[in-house]
Amino acid sequence: MGENQPLRDGTASFGNVRCEEPYSGQIMSIDLNPCAPPTHQHTHKGGLRTVAVVEGLKGVLALLAAYLFIAMVHRDVDFESAAESILFFFHIDPDRRLSQAFLDIADKMSNVNVMLVAALAIAYAALRFLESYGLWKQRAWGEWLAIISGCVYIPFELYKLVSHPSAFHWALLGINILVVLYIAWVRWDEIQAARLRLPAQPDAG
Asked: Does residue 2 belong to any structural domain of this protein?
């Protein structure tokens, strides 16, 4: 029997592939698997793993910052003087609004509870590491966690932007919105791909 010949039962044979449809006698095109349903070609591994690395770095930086803060408290460091030294080192005018806010925060840091700082840093880092793992492994729960946590931060970033407008706060808000929109698009795309893979349900009748 030839390679592309009609069979006696009304089906067609294309190489080693047998299609359970009537053979019309005309072959317009031959795919590698003409009987297979259309597949979803999008892949998001690279983008998701990039976001996962960023989220993991956030957790590391939170733990490092908490460690440095606790070490400075134990050494009785004057945070206001340290903040002034940082502004002087970077040649930043201390009379600016952002500089004054930085100095005010530094002045209040001496009264902060060390155990509270440590607990908050550990909780934040654990959330970031969990989200990073879920995104790296392309888990649906990791994507939902990234969307929800990103949306939670947006109102606080908007408040900071309104109360203390700056390029830094604009950048933070823009990056967070872009990440949330990207993860939401990935989740939507994966939902659509899962629907395409579902077998067609026969009509009742």
From this structure: no
The answer to whether 37 and 196 have CB atoms below 8 angstroms apart is yes
CA 117 vs CA 77, 113, 122: distances in Å: 16, 6, 9
Choose among 116, 114, 87, 91: nearest CA to 103.
87
Tally of domains within the chain: 1
Q: Per the domain annotation, does 9 fall within a domain?
A: no
What range defines the domain where residue 95 resides? 45-193
pLDDT digits (tens, 9 = 90+) for 25-75: 544 444 444 444 444 456 788 889 999 999 999 999 999 988 888 887 777
DSSP H or E segment with residue 100: helix 97-108
37 domain residue, yes or no: no
Burial of residue 195 (CB within 10 Å: 0-12, 13-18, 19+) is exposed
CA separation for the pair 155, 153 (Å, rounded): 6
> To the nearest whole number, what is the mean pLDDT of the chain?
76
Does a structural domain hold residue 203?
no
The backbone region for 4, taken as left when phi is positive above 0, alpha when psi lies in -120 to 50, beta otherwise, is beta
